[in-house]
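Customer escalation, tier 2.

The customer says the design service returned an amino acid string that "doesn't look like it belongs to this structure." They asked us to rerun it and document both sides in this ticket. The original structure tokens are below, unchanged.
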């Protein structure tokens, strides 16, 4: 049997995720005919049909689904071999690819980047900012070394380490809202502004407000906490903001007020996540220590 190449696995993995030959070819930086030929060669080697080719997109056969899962694991293992070699150069030396969700990145990176640069001068940090589902997929595919997200994340192949808790506050405009300081009453009486779907902070807010009527939830979805706060400042409603962001986004002379919740206050737990198979345990430990010290 002819040997399967890592190139074929990489091309097929991209196709299995993007479900489109053109998009997969662009992702892999090759021409579409070249990618298509490699997929056909892979099917010939395996003696299996992996994709059903449609006019606008492809679907995977049941064999294709299984091969895609195995290809993802093999590619991640290959990445781990390279990671092992990099660990021989010392703790947090060389390239380290970190993913961070948007509701953390602007507020924590200014604190940790100077510390990392000072303590680990040989570190080449590459950052990716997007939502938790995209970061988790990239981590499992070996495209990232670790991700900084709100926990929990449940996956058999991932390890997590809790770093710190970030309590929630209700943000209101003191010039337009009544003077009650009861957060649950405020939630019942006002339009609640949330981030758009796909942001874990939206899911956490909806969970917290499960007793609030659906009519109170705004149909508008913002892409950032900064936008939400601007909307509150312009009397469009109220919102929930974690303490980490509130310190940065709400100036002291602002008409906005932070309303704390009664104990036990709702919090989000921020943690570091990595693949169980990764050999970079010392790197993860050093990064976790740097983050917790910077937050303190």
């Amino acid at each position: 049997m002819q040997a399967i190449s890592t190139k074929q696995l990489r091309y097929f993995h991209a196709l299995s995720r993007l479900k489109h030959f053109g998009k997969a070819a662009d992702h892999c930086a090759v021409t579409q005919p070249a990618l298509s030929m490699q997929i056909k060669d892979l099917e010939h080697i395996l003696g299996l049909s992996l994709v059903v080719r449609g006019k606008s997109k492809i679907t995977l056969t049941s064999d294709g689904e299984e091969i895609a899962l195995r290809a993802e694991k093999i590619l991640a293992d290959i990445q781990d071999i390279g990671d092992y070699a990099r660990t021989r150069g010392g703790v947090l030396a060389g390239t380290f690819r970190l993913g961070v969700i948007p509701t953390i990145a602007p507020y924590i990176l200014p604190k940790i980047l100077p510390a990392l640069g000072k303590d680990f001068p040989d570190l080449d940090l590459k950052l990716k900012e997007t939502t938790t589902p995209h970061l988790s997929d990239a981590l499992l595919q070996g495209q990232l070394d670790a991700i900084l997200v709100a926990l929990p994340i449940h996956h058999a192949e991932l390890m997590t380490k809790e770093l710190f808790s970030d309590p929630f506050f209700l943000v209101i405009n003191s010039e337009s809202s009544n003077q009650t300081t009861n957060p649950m009453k405020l939630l019942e009486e006002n339009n609640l502004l949330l981030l758009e779907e796909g942001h874990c902070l939206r899911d956490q807010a909806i969970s917290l407000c499960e007793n609030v009527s659906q009519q109170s939830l705004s149909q508008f979805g913002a892409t950032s906490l900064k936008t939400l706060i601007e909307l509150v400042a312009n009397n469009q409603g109220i919102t929930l903001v974690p303490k980490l962001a509130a310190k940065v986004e709400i100036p002291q002379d602002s008409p906005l007020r932070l309303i704390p919740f009664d104990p036990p206050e709702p919090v989000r737990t921020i943690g570091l996540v990595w693949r169980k198979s990764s050999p970079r345990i010392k790197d993860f430990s050093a990064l976790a220590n740097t983050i917790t010290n910077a937050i303190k």
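Tier 2 assessment: The sequence is consistent with the input. The domain at 165-268 is CATH 3.40.190.10 (D-Maltodextrin-Binding Protein; domain 2). The CA atoms of residues 184 and 225 lie 21 Å apart. Sent an explanation to the customer and offered a walkthrough call.
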